[in-house]
Amino acid sequence: MPTQLQKRKYEKAFDRFDVNRDGVLQENDITAMAKIWCETFKVGPASGDAARINDLATKLWADITAATDTDQSGTVSKSEWNAAMEKPDFVDRVALPFALAVFDVADRDKSGTLSVHEMIAGQSRAGITEDETRRMFEALDTDHDGTVSRDEYAAAIREFYLSDDPNAVGNLMVGDLP
């Protein structure tokens, strides 16, 4: 059973995925999110990056519904979402690959790391303030080299979904929690 902290994190993540803000997740929310990421990072619709993010968005939706849509409605409610989020296999098969695809798109210079500016560009479109993103960036940069590596990012994503530690760095992945 998730802790209160985990419930708040899951609901904040749900709200980020619910692009049209109608209180349920639908396939068009996920495709809209993929489009937003491509627009944010000026990824051309015919590029390999766009194809990858769109393919992963399609897979993300299929995996989300397979793991969460218990009433077979074609939509995912917050309660269905929350039930799936505490499963490590869902995080590793679904949430993490999509997050890493977004990381790769945000990594405009293909260095394998994100600069604070690359991270701010992506997070601002998701409704996270620059101050929140700077705090997130500083916490994620565990080796203090001025960049966030793919490994640091992946560890934070896993920690966001699976940790109930109130001091976990991963808690910052969706901005400040209420």
UniProtKB/TrEMBL annotation:
Domain EF-hand positions: 5-40, 128-163
Domain of life: Bacteria
Annotated GO biological process: regulation of cytosolic calcium ion concentration
Record-linked CDD domains: EFh (cd00051)
Gene Ontology terms: cellular component: cytosol
Record carries keyword Calcium: yes
One Pfam family from the record: EF-hand_7
The keyword Calcium is annotated on this UniProt entry: yes
Entries under PROSITE patterns matching the protein: EF_HAND_1 (PS00018), EF_HAND_2 (PS50222)
Sorted UniProt keywords: Calcium
GO molecular function, one term: calcium ion binding
PANTHER family listed in its UniProt record: CALBINDIN, CALBINDIN-32
Protein name from the UniProt record: Ca2+-binding EF-hand superfamily protein
Taxonomic source organism: Actinocrispum wychmicini
Lineage of source species: Bacteria, Bacillati, Actinomycetota, Actinomycetes, Pseudonocardiales
